[in-house]
Every structure is written in structure tokens, then in C-alpha cells.
Amino acid sequence: MIKYSIEKHAVAFPSKLVAQNGGEHIYNITLTSDTDNGNLVARGDFEDLDRYTEAAVTTFEGKIQKQAANGNWYVEVVNPGDALFVYMQAFIAEDWTNTWKKESNFYNAKGDVVRGYALHKGDVFEVSVEGFDGQPAEKATVTCENKKLKIG
């Protein structure tokens, strides 16, 4: 028998962001470490036209509003600070088994260039429990620590 161990990663979606409709920048960010969708990074040094290095978020505040029907949590931006929402569509091979097709298997590797959505007060994004440091709950306040949403 073969037992495969799959690390589960955060699943996220930019549910209602101003940046999706051209009202804010979507930056290309070169990652300095592995990063899940739904993690938050900041824009670092200029590398090239429309490409920056990843930096640590210094300020972000959000509020968990409720749990979505898919089990993810809706986070509303209270103070975007310098945070960028990382989201890249997962490309999953159709011929893989259902276990291997799960979006939670996907992550962005160190050195990848990802999209970093600039955030506005009132924006809403969704993130699975793996994207939080702590147990998410309705009306909880979140900040950013080590790319994850920190409860409390």
C-alpha cells in the first residue's frame, strides 16, 4: 500500500475587490518564500516595469463578517494599510484523480511572480481556515502576521 501525504494550503477568492474592476492596481510580485492564495504581502523594491519584490505587510486590519456556503470566511477590509491580496488561479490537470485536483493542494512557490491585489476599505475577500493564524469566527478582527490573517 502507498500512503500519500498532501499538505493542505489556503484556498481564497477575491470576492469583491475594487482592483478587479480597474479601480486599483494589481501588482506583479516576485515571492521570496512559498505563499498560499489569500496570504497578504506588501510591495517591496522595484525590479522591472510592473514587477516588485515581496515585502512584509506593516499595516492591515480586517473583520471576519461570516462564513461562506463553501466553508471559506468572508473578510472585509477595515484598514488596507500596505497589504496586497495574493491570488493566482490554480491550474489543475483534468486527468488527475479527484484527490489531486483539490485547490487546497495549490500554492505559489518562492520565486514565482504572483498577482497582488491592492485593497480598499470595504473590499471583501474569502479565505479558507488554513489562511488564518487562529480559529476564524464571525465579527473577529484580523491583522496580518507572517502573511497570514491573525485573529484578535
Give the helices and strands, then pairings.
Blueprint: E1 12-16, E2 26-30, E3 40-48, E4 51-55, E5 61-67, E6 73-79, E7 84-86, E8 113-118, E9 124-127, E10 132-133, E11 141-145, E12 148-151
Parallel strand pairs: 2-4, 10-12
Antiparallel strand pairs: 1-9, 2-8, 3-4, 3-7, 5-6, 5-11, 6-9, 7-8, 11-12
List key phrases describing it.
mainly beta, seven-stranded mixed sheet, five-stranded mixed barrel, globular
Number of helices: 0
Please describe the biggest sheet, giving its number of strands, its sense, and whether it closes into a barrel.
7 strands, mixed
- Classification by helices and strands: mainly beta
User: What's the overall geometry?
Assistant: globular
Which runs of at least 5 residues are low in confidence (pLDDT < 50)? none
Helix content: under 10%
Number of domains: 1
- Major β-sheet strand ordering: 1-9-6-5-11-12-10
> How much strand?
35-45%
Q: Would you report the number of β strands? A: 12
- Note the run of SSEs as H and E: EEEEEEEEEEEE
Radius of gyration: 15 Å
Mean pLDDT, to the nearest integer, reads 92
